[in-house]
Amino acid sequence: MVGTAEATTHLRHSRALAIVASVACLGLAGAAAAACGGASSPAGASRAPAASASAAPPPPSAHQTPAEIALHSTPAIVSIRTPHSLGTGFVVDKSGLIATNIHVIAGHERLVVILPDQRQFPILEVVSHDPNVDLAIVRIAAHDLPSLVLGDSDGVHAGDPIVAIGHPLGLEDTVSNGLISAVRSLDGVTVLQISAPIAPGSSGGPIFNERGEVIGVCTALLQGGQNLNFGVPSKYVRALLDAPEPMSIAAFAAETTPPETVDVAVVRKVPQLKVSALDGCNAAALDLVLQTISEAIEVGAPLYNSGNHAGCYHIYEGAAADLDRKLPRSCKGPGEVLKAGRARAASLPTPTEQAWAMRDSFDGLISVIVRKRRGN
What we know:
Elements: E1 2-14, H1 30-35, H2 66-73, E2 77-81, E3 86-93, E4 97-101, H3 102-105, E5 112-114, E6 120-122, E7 125-130, E8 135-139, E9 161-166, E10 174-186, E11 189-194, E12 206-208, E13 214-221, E14 229-233, H4 235-242, E15 247-248, H5 249-255, E16 261-273, H6 283-305, H7 309-326, H8 332-346, H9 351-374
Antiparallel strand pairs: 1-16, 2-3, 2-5, 3-4, 4-8, 5-6, 7-8, 7-15, 9-10, 9-12, 10-11, 11-14, 12-13, 13-14
């Protein structure tokens, strides 16, 4: 029923962010820009033909539910891996152009994009970037990729419903919904304050309006605050697509610096489950699995990021135990995965490793449920 993907990962957890004159990790002037690895393009950089954001197929005009938006968009949302961290990006052109945050890729030459079908591609170059808004467009050698449509971010207002999708802590395709809390201007840069929860690893992920159009990019969160999360409008992505200034990965890495973070080394053992692991589980049972895991992550991830790894582990372990009790007897597979995860976590020496062991179990279950619902 299950194999195991094992890899050693150095996970980084950003220091607490503060709003003073600007939002950290938006690259807005001074120390914030330095911390987020902002750097300008070298003089005389070669220019490539502009990629047109309008080349993507037109989005549906009707409003969509968060589930519909996730179904249509996740094939175009990718993971971006460095030797020490994991972030999110999304395809903006089928020729292999991907939008993400500068601070996700800053300071690294070895950058790998992982597509939803698990194909992996090295990033070949940075097509354009703007440290003032912490955004970059990168290119991989892949073609005919599903891509997302950029919406009119100038038409966004406080109170508008939104959906954010990313890979918080590496947990693929985590969907959260909320509202535009405010549209602010910081040092001349428009910033979207959103109520949808995000976490480290979600940086670079898309923010959608109700029509499934990208109107922003998840960029930063205020740790210790209540749902104080931020993104930058998609108009800045469109501007980068319209004015490419390509530079090599080596040059970009030399001119940028990763955010100040703390290394934590863990061994990932995400169970690679077959769809048959869900035999006997009806739609309601699978919804219960997804809801319980999502709620556990929303509570546990902030604890982990604040340094309370033991608290995060106990939240995850308790959620797994509760889920095992609630699942119907016919739905045995998820319970077995969770029991195995709890047993492995209990055998590990530190709360850090225990928290990630539980997250591995969650990750494996979400992945197989998504594959089942896509018919893979």
